[in-house]
Write a structure and sequence with these properties.
Strand order of the largest sheet: 8-11-10-9
Oligomer: single chain
Structural class: alpha+beta
Helix content: 40-55%
Strand content: 5-15%
Order of helices and strands: EHHEHHEHHEEHHEEHHHHHEHEEEHHEEE
Number of strands: 14
Shape: globular
Distance between the termini: 43 Å
Largest sheet: 4 strands, mixed
Length: 498
């Protein structure tokens, strides 16, 4: 038994089958034979549909998952007029038929043209006599929206690549598209774009308890949803031009055009959910798309952030439990780091930038001079911020999430929104700990996180009964290391490991 998967040329092979050149049969369905007790139109159609299973079933060939994952690029091809709506509908009908038989694990590959041509002819006949077309492009709202975004980019002169793995652009075209996006941001002024992005989240109620929401939503028939705007990507490009003087004569219009171009660019990656079932499994046939989904989606849409309402408490708890392991903090005491971090988080805003100075965070625990020193440790200057970051595949060059302060002048610093700042504060302090070569840091961190978890559970009013224990299962050899329980709870019948 040999099972193969889709390759980049599978879409071309499907669309190039000779069965598409054959005329669609208009011959009437056969009537009942003499002596038949009963006959129905639907039963005859079901018989033809069942024959398709027999035609395509194989012991070696394509995984039965393959036709299902080919539907998306076939639909996009139809929107781009590289395929017909009929080719998309026939493939969907075949998938419906295969879905009804779980015993079929393998189907004929597209090199077996005779089998696929026979299946296409049978589906053409079924569709001719069916009362309703379930697979029109109008029902495929999400791939249609992606296809239309690709069409707009083609009109701008960019080449769109379409394979069995989906749509895309080559590196040259992607760089050109993103270069146009960055040019528009520079003309608008980076700060203006950042302010507009954060205002959009607030106006559209995409903020929950201070967190910037970017969760996936799917279209509901018959209400298609346009691809999302990649605000996270735009936000990080805008920081590169934070101090650029706005030169746009019509900023409202220009930022709308910027958002539309960025939306089309993001749609080409095609990593948003098509349905509520997307992402429930990661099989061999959708492995390529699944990896892109998880990596590129975050780069386009997902802000790295902590939950703002608890960020201050979490940061303080982390410092306290890490210090309890004997960890010595670099450049300042644990109390000084806590005072500065708590002040930065408290004085930052949920959906706006905050401009600050070290003296604003001085107090009984932290002098102004010490605050200035710690600011220097937490800061990155604008000319180094996201340097070299130009496209959504340049993740390694995006450094804004790892610094909570951006130096915008010799004396002033910008603080991002609270959730982003809190996460960046943790990232930067932990980086300083690593750079200081604190002994056994990873194990200390693990212990701190265990105790933070226990503390969080205790806040519910039910302290966990088991924290940081060891045990030996029955029959374990004495020479083997005991097993460990980080945090666990119990009821009469079970033990729950947290």
């Amino acid at each position: 038994m040999t099972i193969s998967q889709l390759d980049a040329k599978s879409l071309d092979r499907y669309l190039g089958l000779s069965g598409w050149k054959e005329p669609v049969s208009t011959e009437p369905l056969p009537g009942p034979s003499p002596g038949d007790a009963a006959w129905s139109r639907n039963a005859e159609i079901d018989r033809i549909r069942a024959s398709v299973r027999t035609i395509l079933a194989r012991s070696s060939g394509l995984s039965v998952e393959a036709p299902f994952f080919l539907r998306r690029p076939t639909c996009i091809a139809a929107v781009l007029e590289r395929a017909s709506a009929e080719q998309y509908a026939v493939l969907c009908e075949i998938c419906d038929i295969l879905q009804g038989d779980r015993d079929i694990k393998i189907v004929a590959g597209f090199e077996d043209e005779a089998a696929w041509d026979e299946a296409i002819a049978a589906i053409h006949r079924v569709r001719h006599f069916s009362d309703y077309d379930h697979h029109t492009l109008d029902h495929a709202s999400r791939p249609r929206a992606v296809g239309e975004a690709c069409r707009r980019l083609e009109k701008r002169g960019f080449d769109i690549v379409l394979t069995a793995h989906g749509v895309g652009v080559d590196a040259t075209n992607l760089t050109a598209i993103c270069g146009d996006i960055e040019r528009r941001i520079r003309q608008l002024g980076g700060r203006s774009v950042i302010d507009a992005i954060l205002k959009w989240f607030e106006t559209n109620k995409r903020v929950y308890q201070g967190s910037l929401l970017y969760g996936r939503t799917v279209s509901q028939i018959p209400q298609p949803r346009e691809p999302s705007i990649p605000w996270h990507f735009l936000y990080n490009i805008a920081w590169k031009h934070f101090d650029a003087a706005p030169a746009s004569k019509s900023p409202v219009r220009d930022i709308a055009e910027l958002a539309e171009l960025a939306r089309d660019m993001a749609a080409v990656f095609d990593v948003e959910a098509y349905s509520t079932f997307d992402g429930m499994n990661l099989g061999a046939s959708n492995f390529h798309q699944g990896i892109s989904d998880r990596v590129v989606y975050d780069e386009l849409f997902a802000f790295q952030q902590w939950q703002p309402t608890v960020a201050g408490g979490v940061f303080s708890s982390w410092l306290r439990h890490l210090a309890a392991t004997g960890c010595v903090f670099p450049q300042a005491t644990r109390e000084e780091w806590d005072a500065l971090g708590s002040s930065l988080i408290a004085k930052s805003q949920s959906t706006a930038l905050t401009i600050t100075h070290p003296a604003e965070h001085a107090g009984a625990v932290l002098t102004s001079d010490r605050a200035t020193r710690l600011f220097d440790a937490l800061t990155i200057p604008l000319d180094r911020l996201n340097k070299g970051y130009a496209t959504p595949v340049d993740t390694a060059k995006r450094n804004s999430p790892y610094f909570p302060l951006y130096r915008i002048s010799p004396d002033l610093y910008a603080v991002p929104p609270r959730g982003i700042a809190a996460r960046a504060l943790f990232e930067r302090v932990y980086t300083l700990l690593r750079e200081a070569k604190i002994p056994d840091l990873e194990n200390r961190m693990g212990t701190a996180l265990e105790h933070m978890t226990a503390e969080a559970v205790e806040l519910t009013g039910h302290p966990p009964p088991y924290v940081g224990l060891q045990y030996r299962p029955a029959g374990q050899r004495k020479g083997d290391a005991p097993l460990q329980i980080d945090v666990a709870d119990e009821c009469d019948e079970r033990i729950f490991f947290i």
